[in-house]
Amino acid sequence: MDLETGNYQNLVKKESWRTVLTLAYQSLGVVYGDLSISPLYVYKSTFAEDIEHSETNEEIFGVLSFVFWTLTLIPLLKYVFIVLKADDNGEGGTFALYSLLCRHARVNSLPSCQLEDEDLSTYKKDIISPAPSTFGARLKSTLEKHRVLQRILLVLSLIGACMVIGDGILTPALSVFSAVSGVELAMSREHHKYIEVPVACIILIALFALQHYGTHRVGFLFAPVVITWLLCISVIGLYNILHWNPHIYQALSPYYMYKFLKKTQRGGWMSLGGILLCITGSEAMFADLGHFSQLSIKIAFTTIVYPSLILAYMGQAAYLSRHHYIENDYRIGFYVSVPVVGSQAIITGTFSIIKQCSALGCFPRVKILHTSSKIHGQIYIPEINWILMLLCLAVTIGFRDTKRMGNASGLAVITVMLVTTCLMSIVIVLCWHRSVLMAVGFVLFFGTIEALYFSASLIKFLEGAWVPIALAFVFMIVMCIWHYGTLKKYEYDVQNKVSVDWLLGLGPSLGIVRVRGIGLIHTELVSGIPAIFSHFVATLPAFHQVLIFLCVKSVPIPHVKHEERFLVGHVGPKEYHVYRCIVRYGYRDAHKDDLQFENDLVCRIAEYIRTGRGGLSEENEDSTKQCEGMMVVGTPSTHLDGIKMCVEEGANPEDAGTSELREIETLSPPVIKTRKRVRFVIPESPKIDRDAHKELRELMEAREAGVAYILGHTYVRAKQGSNLVKKIVINFGYDFLRRNCRAPTYALNSVPHASTLEVGMVYHI
């Protein structure tokens, strides 16, 4: 499966209405499930304890007014018409906003960032520096000067990410348990109490077991269910309006909100935590943006979801205005299927946010499976999936109460929305170059509404709202420890790297034995020679005739174009045959981990040798000199007229040329029964000089001899004199995470063991 076939997201905007409508149809099954099932529990949670329904109907009218304006102002006005426009090259979510800010101001926490990364076409897309005299320019300068503000920005983004993960645990539990609780059927209440928890747990297990099929299949599977559900609740709502209270539309006036708060006072304010549940799932519109497109999400919400929800809530209010007790009205066969669908949006968003955090060095490495060959954002993370399932089951078994689950879920949702509001205010000034008054107005308007709901949710701390705070705290500690340890480890690499002058001082022969083959050294450094290599040479003074320092790094953009994937350059003089290759991926790109990557890498170095500095433009010469003469070389798919490499298995040594008859010597002791013959197919134009031809011959012979993978295995410890907190964080926290997470994402995960050499080293940081 080719995971890098085209940049699908960029093509969506140019495609036909048929494609847009297809994406809108899929989004109904993935994005809007949670938002669509909220009528199951909003009124029930609102009238649980804090307020009571009276004969005057002021309470039910006030709640309906709150629901209507909350749905109109937050999902419709804020997200659909404003926040969705702040996409990061088609990607959404809290970390997408952070990535967008990182590109407009130098606030990126990634230590391996380079000036060359800013030359990526998608890095500077639509980026215009603010005028020097504007507030945006002053804000940019302030953020770039003060590390404290940069850390606050990162922590704010991490809080939003942690709350999304917490919501991914709470929403499935709330949705499924609410539905199971509603299916009382004819069984007695005592009987129902003992059976609802096991049934909810079975449904949750089935839900998470479906995730490995991918968003594409799940979307097509769930979309008909959501559409049917929305159609049913809107028809029932319309019937209830016409049959029970045709004048219920009067309750849409904001005046009823005032009357509601005036009459209920503190009880009404506390009940806002239940009303808040009507917008759970709104954040999924932005978090799941990378799976679809802006237009498809807007069409689905404005034409189907929003009108259906308004009719459903109005119908419930009309019925309750004539029946002064709370009862679930939608006793139809969707109590089980719809909650499963409703949980999909936040689970998908959780996978996306964790992948973004991991790519930006803020979450331990996890196994990421791409479930679609066309849409990069459709992923599945097995470890996270099962952790979410276990935590969901724990919440369901521990709470066994929709009221406390609702309090917990509401606080998680409103916190994510508050973080989005804060980051959006900076985006308005720094990225959109709007006036500071517009940013302040945005914060005051939406921030005030969300702060009101936040306070109402926080007051329920002991009644379930402590759960998302506890979950976010745990995930926050994990993220901060991992980010801190990774940063300190990279700083140690930078401080202890060996300069190129050391390599040059060894002379043309490098003072050691050069054996046949290619030595591929994985490193996180983008310049200099890693300490692990000098440690290796000091122990074993020999290495291969061709040496490649390979760095696989992430950049703060969603996708890196194929023609800009590789940065290749010499380390030292050409006759040393030492190269550096930096492979750049966006935080939503699929990392190729097959054996074909090895051949692609050799081909890109051969292409660099063929084109040389002639392939560089004059305007890039200065930056190239700063980076050891590196130049951008695309993937083979973008250089159809470039060098091609042919590998023939089982070539007969007697028919081979001089280079094939030489004895193969590598650092590893592979037993070779069949020979590989490697040929470079060089285009006739332009002609290459003799030196380049000789260098290509050397590379070809080395590739025939085989590739040895030299991997660094580092142990990180706090240096002597460190305080107790640092020792605990590094020696226990970071070490535990490093030992239990996935191995570093090297270009080749399927490295043959017979060709692998691990070099151990202790880092005292």
Automatic annotation (TrEMBL):
Residues 517-765 form the K+ potassium transporter C-terminal domain. One of its GO terms (cellular component) is plasma membrane. The keyword Membrane applies. Signal peptide: none annotated. The keyword GTP-binding does not apply. Keywords: Ion transport, Membrane, Potassium, Potassium transport, Transmembrane, Transmembrane helix, Transport. The chain crosses the membrane at residues 20-40, 60-81, 148-166, 194-214, 220-242, 267-287, 299-320, 332-354, 379-399, 411-430, 436-454, 466-485. It is found in: Cell membrane; Membrane. One of its GO terms (molecular function) is potassium ion transmembrane transporter activity. Its main location: membrane. Residues 23-503 form the K+ potassium transporter integral membrane domain. Belongs to the HAK/KUP transporter (TC 2.A.72.3) family. Potassium transporter. This is Potassium transporter. It comes from Olea europaea subsp. europaea.
